[in-house]
Design brief:
327 residues; alpha/beta; Rossmann fold; Dihydrodipicolinate Reductase, domain 2; 2 domains; six-stranded parallel beta sheet; 10 helices
């Protein structure tokens, strides 16, 4: 069995979570990590038992032993980091939000196709077994015909630099709202007739809280809320004409409760035991690499691009502009 050498670009909190995940996985090695300083990379490598540390992202991407690179830098840096890796022929698992805007996303996807290099977005909920189980349950008709969906996601992250600064592609939408839009897309599809939203902005000009309503062409409706100020319940509810289902934590689904038309619980599905939940996107990436795929069926390139376009349209409506939008 091949052991895949995983490299990580970036040494922040999300990189630590991936490092912990890799330590519990089979078939992978914590091989290399890169930061903008060798000292920071070496400290990370020592803590998480990586074999190599690099003081530049280019050095890691040039290492012939690296099989997959996970990009864990802030949103605004994803485009440059991913482009550099693709140019060097390295398969990429790029943290969400995929890029700062749809133009960058389209360019990366086109480049990866031209270079025949695997590239996928690390929107972890797309790869989780329980997320897939929810779709099966809906298709089986456990709540009848679905008509309404509601979901919220909020954490107190309003002091974080990467959230507040437009030049880092900050705001609630790309950090939290992206999960809500993906939740709606996974279960209600992509045929949207109209979008209605309202946004409250920070003093720095990025979105702090938003309420987004999606009306789908088949009549379904989704109501989504995100906040960088409030600790929300993170619940997702999908309602049909024969009952509803409740998803505990749409950001990492832990359980799904099915209730009938009389509000009685008829079934509960628990998530399988996980390392952190990040392992599923890594395994999906390795499956694609082994089979020679350029994208993962769990998060197709067309869907990544569509959601980036959707977020561009929302930001335009709110007047949330990043410096890279003007390039």
């Amino acid at each position: 069995m091949k052991i895949y050498n995983i490299g990580i670009i970036g040494c922040g909190g999300i990189a630590c979570k991936m490092a912990a995940t890799l330590g519990g996985m089979k078939g992978v090695k914590r091989y290399a990590v890169a930061s903008r300083t060798l000292e920071k990379a070496q400290a990370f490598a020592d803590k998480w038992e990586f074999a190599k540390a690099y003081g530049s992202y280019e050095e890691l991407a040039s290492d012939p032993e690296v099989d997959l690179i996970y990009i864990a830098t802030p949103h605004a840096m994803h485009y440059d980091n991913a482009r550099m890796c693709i140019e060097k022929g390295k398969p990429v698992l790029c943290e969400k939000a995929f890029t700062a805007n749809a133009r960058q996303a389209a360019e990366l996807l086109k480049l990866a196709e031209e270079k025949k290099v695997f590239l996928t977005e690390a929107i972890w909920t797309r790869y989780m077994p329980l997320s897939l189980k929810i779709r099966e349950l809906l298709e089986e008709g456990v709540i009848g015909t679905p008509y309404m969906l509601s979901a919220n996601l909020g954490y107190v992250i309003d002091r974080k630099e990467r959230i507040l600064r437009p030049e880092l592609a900050g705001g609630a939408l790309l950090d939290l709202g992206v999960y809500l839009l993906n939740f709606a897309a996974m279960y209600f599809g992509k045929e949207i007739a109209s979008v209605h939203s309202v946004c409250q902005k920070t003093d720095t000009g990025v979105d702090a809280q938003e309420n987004i309503t999606l009306l789908f062409q088949d009549g379904k409706m989704a109501a989504l809320q995100a906040s960088i100020h409030a600790v929300t319940d993170r619940m997702g509810v999908i309602s049909g004409d024969k009952g509803h289902l409740i998803v505990e934590n749409i950001n990492n689904p832990q359980s799904v409760r099915i209730l009938d038309a009389n509000y009685q619980t008829v079934a509960v599905y628990e998530a399988p035991q996980q390392i952190t939940g990040y392992e599923y996107q890594v395994y999906a990436s390795l499956e694609a690499i082994e089979k020679g795929w350029l994208e993962s069926p769990y998060m197709p390139h067309a869907e990544t691009l569509r959601l980036m376009q959707q977020m561009d349209a929302l930001r335009k409506e709110w007047g949330v502009v990043y410096p890279c939008d003007k390039e």
